[in-house]
Amino acid sequence: xxxxxxxxxxxxxxxxxxxxxIPRYQREFSWTKENIDELWSDLxxxxxxxxxxxxxxxxxxxxxxxxxxxxxxxxxxxxxQQRLTVITMLISAxxxxxxxxxxxxxxxxxxxxxxxxxxxxxxxxxxxxxxxxTNYFQLLVQDLEPHQxxxxxxxxxxVKNAFDQIAKLxxxxxxxxxFGLTGKVSNEKYIEILNILLDxxxxxxxxxxxxxxxxxxxxxxxxxxxxxGINLSPVDLIKNKVLQEWxxxxxxxxxxxxxNGIVSTLSSREISVGLEEYTIHHWTTKFAYTxxxxxxxxxxxxxxxxxxxxxxxLQELHDDCLSYIKIVSPLSTDWPQADQRDIFNxxxxxxxxxxxxxxxxLLSLFKARNRGILKQAKLIDTLKKIENFHFMFNSICSxxxxxxxxxxxxxxxxxxxxxxxxxxxxxxxxxxxxxxxKKPTQENFIDKFNxxxxxNGNTSHKKLIQYIFIKFERSLxxxxxxxxxxxxxxxxxxxxxxxxxxxxxxSIGNLLPLGQSWNGQANVSDFSIxxxxxxxxxxxxxxxxxxxxxxxxxxxxxISTRTNTLALRAYTDxxx
Length: 576
Prior knowledge:
InterPro entries: GmrSD_C, GmrSD_N. This protein is α/β, with parallel strands linked by helices.
C-alpha cells in the first residue's frame, strides 16, 4: 500500500479545483458547543499581538485521510470530516461578516476560493460535498447570501447550532472582548481582525494530509489511526464498515435508513439507550463476549472470516432494537394482555435495580420467545427468578458480579444459536442453577436489608423501598396484578422525633406504604392516633401491621424486630 503523508495548509487543501466529498457511511456531524469552544480558544491563542500588529502561529488540527488520485476532481474524505466541516463554517461566517459591512469583493473572492468553486465551463460546485439526506448545510453555510432554512434532521439541528455559535463568535462584540479592545470598535478595526482570523485559518492552520489511491487503502489507514487514539468509537467504525459495504441507495438509502431507525428507537423512551451499549449486548447474543474497547476488533475478526454480511447484520440490529428498548425502559402497553403483566413487573423491577449485565441474555430470551421455541410461562418464570436474584445480589447486598456477566453472555449466545425447545429450556435452567448457587447467604441478606434507609435528606433507597412494599403487597394478595396508583412512604415513628437515632427512624421496619392523603393526615406523633388513621388504608401490609401491633406505643425495639421480620420473610418467602 502506497500513500503520502504531508503537512498542508487549508489554503493548499481548498484553493485547488477539487471537491472533497463525505461518503454516506461516515458518521454525521456531531460537534457540540464544547468542541467548537475548544477549537476557537486554540485559534485565538495562536494570534499574538505585537507592537506592529498581529502575528499568527502555526496550529495543527490533526490528520485528514483522503482517497483518490492526484488528478481526480472528486476526493473522498475518509477521516477528518468533522474538522473540515467546522473549518468550512468558520470561513463562511468570516466571509459573511466582511460582506455585511461592505467589504464585498474580498468576501466574494475568499468565499469563491475556499467554499465555492467553478470548473472551466463555469459550473459552480461546493468544495465540501457532505452528501447528506437534506440540503440544509448547502443553504445555511455554502452560500454567501443567508437563506431562511429549517432543520430537517438531528444532524441539521447540530449544524445550525454550530454555525449560529460560530457566527456569534466572529461578531464584533465577541471579538472586541477577546482582543481586549476598549471603546467603540470601528469597522476598520473589525475588518482587520476578521482578516487576521482568515489569515490564521487558511495560511497557518495545518493538517497532516494522508493521500492514498483508493478507499480500501484509506480505510485501512483510517482503522490504524483510530486504533491509536483518534476519537471515533467502535460503533462509529462498525457503522462506517457496514454502510460502506451495503452501498444500495436506490430507491432509498436502505442502510442509512435502518441505522437511523435504530438510533431513533433507542432514544424514543424515558430512559434512552446508547448505541454502543446496545451494539455490545446484541453482539453478545451471537458471538463471544467482548468489552467496549475490543468490540471493533471482534467485529473485524468475524467480518474478515466471512461470518458477517452487511445487509443481514444491520437488518438484525434494526429488528431487535425494539425488543431491547422494551427490556431497558418497559411500558405497560408493551404487554397489554392480563397474562403478560408479570413480564412488565419483572422488567420494571430490573430497571429499579439499575442492573444491565443480564440484558444480552434477556434479548436472547425474548428472541427465543418470538421464534416460538420458548413458551410464555417459561419466559415469565425465568424473568421472575432473574428479578429475585438481582434484588438480593445487587440491590440489597451489593455483591461483586464476578463471572456473572460472562455466564449471561455464554447463555445468551447458546440460546440464540438453538432452534430446539428442549435445548432452550436446558440452557435457561443451567443459567438459573448457576445464579441460585451465587445467592447471598441469609445472614448477609438480613444484615444489608437492615441498612436500607429512607429519611429526608437520604432518599437514595426510596424507589427500592417502594418496590419492596409493592412486592410484599402482591404476595399478601397472591396477585401480581396489583399496581398502586398512589403510594407514599409513612414513617410510623415520626422523623421529627428528636431523641431517636435517625438510622432507626429511616429503617424499613419503621415504614409503611400509604396513600398520599392518609400520609398527610398521619403526620402526628401519637401512635394510637396514627393507628386509627391507618385503618383507612387499603394496603394489606398495613392491615397486617395493625393486626400484629396491639400496643399503643411504638419503640426502637419494635422497629428493629419488624425490620428483621420483614428481612427474613423477604429472603425465605417473597423473593425465594
